[in-house]
Write a structure and sequence with these properties.
alpha/beta; 7-stranded mixed β-sheet; 4-stranded antiparallel β-sheet; 15 helices; 16 strands
Amino acid sequence: MSFTAQCIWTSAGSELLLPCSRSIPRTLLTIPRNLQRSVGKYPSFLATMSTISDQKTAVLNNDESTQKAQQPVQVAKRLEKFKTTIFTQMSQLATKYGAINLGQGFPNFDGPDFLKEAAIQAIRDGKNQYARGYGVPDLNSAIAERFKKDAGLTVNPEREVTVTSGCTEAIAATILGLVDPGDEVILFAPFYDSYEATLSMAGAKVKAITLRPPDFAVPIDELKLAITKNTRALLINTPHNPTGKMFTREELNVIASLCVENDVLVFTDEVYDKLAFEMDHISMASLPGMYDRTVTMNSLGKTFSLTGWKIGWAIAPPHLTWGVRQAHSFLTFATSTPMQWAAATALRAPESYYEELKRDYLAKKAILVEGLNTVGFQVFPSSGTYFVVVDHTPFGLKNDVEFCEYLIKEVGVVAIPTSVFYLNPVEGKNLVRFTFCKDENTLRAAVARMKEKLKRL
């Protein structure tokens, strides 16, 4: 092992200090007194050390000058079209203008104490090293138990459940593990923005079927025409972000029959399954003939208000789980160990927890929806999630981005422009999304600002 340094004598003359780089960055090495005389016998050594240091300093200074020069950003062609996420952009503007953030979908309140205590206990118990790649056994079992209660399906926790770093990684592992370059994948627009970006990384061809207001129903005839011999999968999100739509049993049955008929897989993102307000959530995998061709993805964050824990999972038959796990192994390999142990506790929470969760969110939803209607938006029905989509055109701005910027700067409230959720942004130019996963005082304050400052034309 080698290092470069400049030797410096201390003022007391008792120690020789070596500021080192590389393997011991910027650390002072002390040469003991009994070796100082030996070192002093070799002035060439000291001179060499000083010369090397001067050369290194010159290189570092040159590097710093180069770095200060503006360099063009570099990104792979498959990601060139994707910019900084709209959530980041709107949150930055919210901070700059002191706006109330009803844009990004994370709660401004904390998750349950019993889960935080479970995580702390896991850390204290020494559960802090790498977990098994596809999940801590107790969490895999808890996921299987919960899926049995919710979907009525019995799955093998060892062979059919894969724990991931949030549902976003479950999506990535599923797509990268099961979709080849050139495969067609059909999305329902508007869609969560990571879907298209991940499919682009996989080299897939993306098609979109647009769900249109007011009810965002599935246009079955368009879907039938979109499916071809090259269609590998459909990606469904229900309850649906950003619209709050829940796919009906009739819609899911038709989609299922088309998938069986055309040998198409289904990837279902069900992270909002416990926020189903006006009808029961239906897992696609539970429909006849669908389990063997479905990957069901979910996570802890939305249901337990712990989005920063990033605990997700994918449930699939063994022949599909193989591909998911292959990709997962080279994405993150394993997920936070103590948080997995706590997540197992979460999934075994009594049903009363989920009932109270719905009551709380229904109260929050009522505050926001009533306020948006009073202000003058056209508010579309939201049956699930913690989002509401509205038509902003009564206020005279030409598109959703312009309206959201005005709303932040002049009114002091953040919403998300939905055009970023479409392959063709024009389709979303009249719509914006609000979230109600905030405490009631925050929601009331946002409504009050809009009532005071937002005027219809």
